[in-house]
Amino acid sequence: METLVWTCTEKTPEPGVFSDMLEERRRTSDLSYALKSYSPQPYKGHPPSSARALHQAVMDSQYLRYITQEIATESREPVEVIREEASGILEEMSHNLQLSVIRLLGYTLNKVFKSVFRRILVNEDGLNRLQQAIQEHPVILMPNHRSYVDFLVLSYILFTYDLPLPVIAAGIPLMGMKLIGELLRRSGAFFIRRTIGADKLYWAVLSEYVRTIVRTGSAPVEFYVEGLRSRTLKSLNPKLGMMHMVLEPFFKGEVYDISLVPISVSYDRLLEESLLAHELLGVPKPKETTMGLLKARKVLEDDYGSMHVCFGQPISVRELAKGRITRSQYNLVPRDLPQKPSEEIQAFVSVVAHGMVRLQERDTVLSPWSLMALILLQNPEGLALVTLTQRTAWLRGLVLKFGAHLDWPAQVSDEEVMSSSMSLHRSMVGCEGARVFLLEAPAPGGEASVSPEAAVFRRAAVVLMCASYRNQVLHVFVRPALVAVAMATTPSTRKEDVFTNFKFLQELFSNEFVFVPGMAAQDFEEGCLLLVKCEALQTSDQQLVRTEHGADTTSCLQAILQPFLQTYQVVFNYLTKDSALVFTERQYIPAVRSYCLKLTLAGELPTCEALSSDTQKNVLNALLRMNAVTKTKVGDQSEFRVNKAAIQRIGDILAGRIPPQSAAFSRL
Amino acid sequence: MASNGKSSERQRIAQQRLRIIAGHLRKQEEADHIEIAAQECKAESSRTDTAKPNSVPKRRQEIMKWNGWGYSDSKFLFNKKGQAEFTGKRYRLSGLILPSLKEWFEGTFGANLQHKSPAAAALNAGAVPPPNLSESFVEELKATDIPFSHDAEDRVFRSHGHCLHEIFGLREGQYGRCPDMVVWPNCHIDVVKIVELACKHNVCLMPYGGGTSVSSALECPPEETRSIVSLDTSQMNQILWIDEKNLTAHVEAGIIGQDLERLLNESGYCTGHEPDSMEFSSLGGWVATRASGMKKNIYGNIEDLVVHIKMVTPRGVIEKSCQGPRMSTGPDVHHFILGSEGTLGVVTEVTMKIRPVPEYQKYGSVVFPNFQQGVACLREVAKQRCAPASIRLMDNEQFQFGHALKPQVSSMFTSFLDGLKKFYITKFKGFDPQQLCVATLLFEGDREKVLQHEKQVYDIAAKFGGLAAGEDNGQRGYMLTFVIAYLRDLGMDYYVMGESFETSVPWDRVLDLCRNVKERIVRECKEKGVQFPPLSTCRVTQTYDSGACVYFYFAFNYRGLSDPLNVYLQVEHAAREEILANGGSLSHHHGVGKLRKEWMQDAVSSVGLGMLKSVKEYVDPDNIFGNRNLL
Ligand SMILES: Cc1cc2nc3c(=O)[nH]c(=O)nc-3n(C[C@H](O)[C@H](O)[C@H](O)COP(=O)(O)OP(=O)(O)OC[C@H]3O[C@@H](n4cnc5c(N)ncnc54)[C@H](O)[C@@H]3O)c2cc1C
């Protein structure tokens, strides 16, 4: 693989010009749009196969025959029963894509989108490339997932641009929403249970279903490699199961190549922004009921600014696999038989999945608000509007230098950019007498007397909401910021020593940020390079030296990671001082939360962000990975046992009190 | 030679058989056979007196091209009117005009008759590096009376096989490393003497049979510093005896396919071994490369056909002590010889199975709506073990290519080819002309059984949407394989270079392999700067119980490329990688030679390679047979 595919040091190909696809929609009627002619050019001229034919192909497959027979033998049940069961699973899973429903949906989405968004900006170059790719090879559409809204947005766009409609992997909860479930199914969604675990039959049916679609190229497959909608708007580390399924037809030579298309969706403002923060704070979210979200009139009447959809460069799996995969490893066993993937394959799948997330990050179009949010969070007491404007403009220069795409309106003064962003986000930010500050979330139900705990949550809710917007830009900074932090905690300036620290940080934060496995050195180089580029660093003779006039940049970068460093230390403290030696999964979050709450009330919590259950979970997973916590299954519960000394040590390294042992963290 | 009362019947059948061979091979009236007396051998007593002069003389240059395929008198060219024609009188197509070839050629390759890339006009003997002779070897060889030569032409002729890069080089007037001399043993004993002398004087020996190798097997290793002697077996070309009780024939290994069949036919027999190169390739060459003939379904591949082999090695002569049809005496030593590619010694005599010439032969063809259906049908035929003598499935590109070879006037073709388009549109309604493909069939046996067999196969074909498409179509398909090598030379006159290669693969991977390899070729060409999409086509040429043999052709327009040969080599290399990645074998019948050597270890494992090496080590410790093939 050209390693450079995944790094940002390379000149990022421009996504091309974005054009507003709503503009034309506003000029024509929804009905004529929905009834427009639609005749896409499919893959190799194959017409899409019907849902029934697909069902049949899966049931007839040698693979499923084999598995059902095997399960029948193991369970001593007649094979017909197992096959019946398989057919049932398939029934539950299958999409039933119908153009008429897409038209109906187009009609509806058109209405909704026109009302909530000012613009939907799409890079047409990307669509042209996609059109080309679809005709040549099976295509996998890999969008990030930030909002309920984006679930059908690709179908909407592809319909509009006369491209083949995708079939979309969706979670079963969506299916649970009665009417919507069926509507989604007919819009091309197929449904996957959230917890499949060791259900062999389910895995078999699902993987054969997915592979059959890819193999026949009957429709582009769309799935979220991150697995879920990101509640923090940060990219999530990818899930590998589905990734492996879609790649397998290539490994086994059943298709010549597969094109992976990263797609980056970003919003100026999220419809469900307040929901997200509440979820993170542990306020139970409303169930995903039928009209759940969209029904809320208020939501639909509000202004959500623009949505950006960037279709990335299609990636050839064959190119990626060159020199990494020996396809002949499948030569000696019939390809229809289940086979445990080799280490080589597993590693490849993981690298590809992580790489795709990075590409999604790279192509994401950021809004000025993300930058403002970053600065606002660094000034919890508020700041002068002029300062905010200055700092944001400065940050803008930095992200552009770092190669990010920013939707900064041209021919508009910085002041206007500030004020229009603030007005879009007026639920979060206030401005009085030229001072800008974060607001508090309104009390639920307008309670008059508020408990101190509730007050904390109200404040935290806005901080976490704001943090989500900042999170969208973190990937731009994370590598140079980690280098900056590593330099600060390394006594020497030797590149090698800094790198050791960098690797430790990367290991610790690898649930927090997405790093392609095995590429620590490249990540480090990239971080250094960007620091050099913004003149915050000079490298000479294996030494890393901070520059005087780059101090501002360096400290800003360090500050970006502060909330995470602080939260991790808080949780470490909790685990080493307050926590029991053994606790269950269910006990963990509430316990950490109440610990944080206690600290807040005592005025000792360094950052509200420590209240995010997402970060709290990440800490636990990091410790698990680093063997400072061990997990055992007791019944259907997981039990965690903490090694306090180990956690203490990790905390000390993080604080720069002791150096990391390079060997101990050599995962990368 | 034995004979019995039925000999007149045999004669009759033999006559018929001859006609059949002539049918797909050459013109029947070939009165002007080139008479070359090459029988200087100290005649052995048992030698058959019906021996005819062999079709290829000692001095190959007298009748064969030095930088292209086949007979000098036979070639494709575009005449002044821009029409393609095939010269000479030997073949069915000879003397005919092929009006659609030009359009196909230009359309397929983006070639242009204005853009010529002619070959060097003649062999420039002066440019051939002088021979590096071993004086002492030559001295002693003279004493044996075995003919030899170090004439430049003789040497150049034996310096190559028929890989594209070899022929392309010759056309450009590049001769590379040539053998330093050529010897022509006349019999087994001569070979024993030569090998003894070679060992004594440490010269390198390279057996040369028909020179049709397509694996760089005949290329002299450039690193070889010793004198290289090409041992040309062409004068060892007699059928020594025919055993009608056991149906075997004992034959000298230098005999070439067409002579062997012709001579056996005269006695009413055949071997049934018909590789596409049978006009020129030799029995010894078949053994040395594990060759495969088109009719292997009835007669078997070369390893099934041999009963006994005699080979002269530096250690002495290896042969079995009896002619039992099967033995359990440890690993079969024949299998060290079969496929040894000239690395262990010289095969001098072979006892082969023979069969009575079949009474009846019938061609056939089936058109399928697409390649998948065709493969499914072949698979079913293999499953039911009812494959005809030959069954081959051409893909759509090759099907179209076949059309381009439609001659202007020929009774044989008119019925089918005139208004071919109309024919397909009316008869094969619903078949997409860009998708359909054709299987060609050849049935052999007694008349009744052939007809029965034919019905069985057509019935199976019908289940896969196949429609019978006539005998002529089938016959033409087979003819094509004999002229294809000539066509490559035509291409090279107009900036088009091409090559074929083959593999064997399990049934379930046939389609995937075909698609991926073809696509790989197209993409590699594009990446390497080839301006026009290449011709990339395949056919399934053999069926087995568990898999099939697949044969690829690819060719492209190399105008505008600074180093076309290198591009070609890279594309071929990539195609082989693709085959291996898709579960195909390194070779089904062309062998490894030096061209595919780099993959040998992967193909047979390092232990396997070690086993072969240790045999080489024992048999030929001084690497006298130093062509460096295989290992
Ligand atoms: C147009 C064309 C069509 C072909 N079709 C077929 C086909 O249908 N089936 C098939 O199997 N192959 C085919 N081939 C490949 C080739 O014809 C075979 O490999 C054939 O067996 C080579 O025989 P030869 O006599 O020409 O050997 P050569 O090319 O002279 O030599 C081939 C190798 O065998 C060794 N050798 C030759 N004779 C002896 C001997 N007496 N003792 C020891 N070693 C010896 C040589 O040293 C060399 O390594 C085709 C080639 C061409 C150009």
From TrEMBL, chain A:
<dbReference type="InterPro" id="IPR002123">
    <property type="entry name" value="Plipid/glycerol_acylTrfase"/>
</dbReference>
<dbReference type="GO" id="GO:0004366">
    <property type="term" value="F:glycerol-3-phosphate O-acyltransferase activity"/>
</dbReference>
<dbReference type="Pfam" id="PF01553">
    <property type="entry name" value="Acyltransferase"/>
</dbReference>
<protein>
    <submittedName>
        <fullName>Dihydroxyacetone phosphate acyltransferase isoform X1</fullName>
    </submittedName>
</protein>
<feature type="domain" description="Phospholipid/glycerol acyltransferase">
    <location>
        <begin position="139"/>
        <end position="268"/>
    </location>
</feature>
<dbReference type="GO" id="GO:0006631">
    <property type="term" value="P:fatty acid metabolic process"/>
</dbReference>
<dbReference type="GO" id="GO:0019432">
    <property type="term" value="P:triglyceride biosynthetic process"/>
</dbReference>
<keyword id="KW-0012">Acyltransferase</keyword>
<dbReference type="GO" id="GO:0008654">
    <property type="term" value="P:phospholipid biosynthetic process"/>
</dbReference>
<dbReference type="InterPro" id="IPR022284">
    <property type="entry name" value="GPAT/DHAPAT"/>
</dbReference>
<dbReference type="Pfam" id="PF19277">
    <property type="entry name" value="GPAT_C"/>
</dbReference>
<dbReference type="InterPro" id="IPR045520">
    <property type="entry name" value="GPAT/DHAPAT_C"/>
</dbReference>
<keyword id="KW-0808">Transferase</keyword>
<comment type="similarity">
    <text>Belongs to the GPAT/DAPAT family.</text>
</comment>
<comment type="pathway">
    <text>Phospholipid metabolism.</text>
</comment>
<dbReference type="GO" id="GO:0031966">
    <property type="term" value="C:mitochondrial membrane"/>
</dbReference>
<keyword id="KW-0472">Membrane</keyword>
<dbReference type="GO" id="GO:0016287">
    <property type="term" value="F:glycerone-phosphate O-acyltransferase activity"/>
</dbReference>
<dbReference type="InterPro" id="IPR041728">
    <property type="entry name" value="GPAT/DHAPAT_LPLAT"/>
</dbReference>
<dbReference type="GO" id="GO:0005778">
    <property type="term" value="C:peroxisomal membrane"/>
</dbReference>
<dbReference type="GO" id="GO:0008611">
    <property type="term" value="P:ether lipid biosynthetic process"/>
</dbReference>
Automatic annotation (TrEMBL), chain B:
<dbReference type="InterPro" id="IPR016169">
    <property type="entry name" value="FAD-bd_PCMH_sub2"/>
</dbReference>
<feature type="active site" description="Proton donor/acceptor">
    <location>
        <position position="551"/>
    </location>
</feature>
<keyword id="KW-0285">Flavoprotein</keyword>
<dbReference type="InterPro" id="IPR016167">
    <property type="entry name" value="FAD-bd_PCMH_sub1"/>
</dbReference>
<comment type="pathway">
    <text>Glycerolipid metabolism; ether lipid biosynthesis.</text>
</comment>
<keyword id="KW-0809">Transit peptide</keyword>
<dbReference type="GO" id="GO:0071949">
    <property type="term" value="F:FAD binding"/>
</dbReference>
<keyword id="KW-0443">Lipid metabolism</keyword>
<dbReference type="InterPro" id="IPR036318">
    <property type="entry name" value="FAD-bd_PCMH-like_sf"/>
</dbReference>
<keyword id="KW-0597">Phosphoprotein</keyword>
<dbReference type="InterPro" id="IPR016171">
    <property type="entry name" value="Vanillyl_alc_oxidase_C-sub2"/>
</dbReference>
<keyword id="KW-0274">FAD</keyword>
<dbReference type="InterPro" id="IPR025650">
    <property type="entry name" value="Alkyl-DHAP_Synthase"/>
</dbReference>
<keyword id="KW-0472">Membrane</keyword>
<feature type="binding site">
    <location>
        <begin position="289"/>
        <end position="292"/>
    </location>
    <ligand>
        <name>FAD</name>
    </ligand>
</feature>
<comment type="subunit">
    <text>Homodimer.</text>
</comment>
<feature type="binding site">
    <location>
        <begin position="341"/>
        <end position="347"/>
    </location>
    <ligand>
        <name>FAD</name>
    </ligand>
</feature>
<feature type="binding site">
    <location>
        <begin position="207"/>
        <end position="213"/>
    </location>
    <ligand>
        <name>FAD</name>
    </ligand>
</feature>
<dbReference type="InterPro" id="IPR006094">
    <property type="entry name" value="Oxid_FAD_bind_N"/>
</dbReference>
<keyword id="KW-0444">Lipid biosynthesis</keyword>
<comment type="similarity">
    <text>Belongs to the FAD-binding oxidoreductase/transferase type 4 family.</text>
</comment>
<comment type="pathway">
    <text>Lipid metabolism.</text>
</comment>
